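Priority: medium. Attachment 1 of 2:
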């Protein structure tokens, strides 16, 4: 087994940030709108536990995560209302992003191996990829 050190780039997907990413992924864009609507209610002074159901209803009515919320709305409510912990949520999101980036890098690495490249050629490609992803 060859040890790898990977660096993941994290993007803010809140409304108004990184619109180019949100344009490419409807799921992220809709999730961003859902979170934005929750924050909008809280800015009006409405408690989180009181805003969840109306936000879910709003999103379903406006075709924002409609199918998912119709199927899992109560789970979303319970997750947010029951045990929501912002710090834990941030940690989980970061971990998931790292795991996704690691999986993508692993697939890229395996693709290079499957192409029959030598270790030296693979190192060069990985270094090139790192340069391009950090510029």
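Attachment 2 of 2:
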């Amino acid at each position: 087994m060859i040890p790898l050190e990977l660096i993941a780039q994290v993007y803010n997907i809140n409304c108004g940030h990184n619109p180019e990413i949100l344009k490419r992924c409807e799921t992220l864009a809709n999730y961003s709108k859902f979170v934005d609507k929750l924050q909008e209610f809280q800015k009006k002074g409405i408690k989180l536990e009181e805003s969840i159901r109306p936000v879910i209803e709003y999103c379903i009515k406006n075709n924002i995560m409609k199918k998912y919320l119709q199927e899992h709305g109560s789970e979303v409510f319970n997750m947010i209302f029951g045990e929501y912990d912002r710090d834990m949520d941030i940690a989980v999101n970061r971990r998931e992003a790292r795991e996704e980036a690691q999986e993508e890098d692993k697939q890229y690495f395996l693709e290079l191996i499957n192409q029959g490249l030598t270790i030296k050629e693979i190192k060069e490609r990985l270094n090139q990829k790192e340069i391009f992803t950090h510029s």
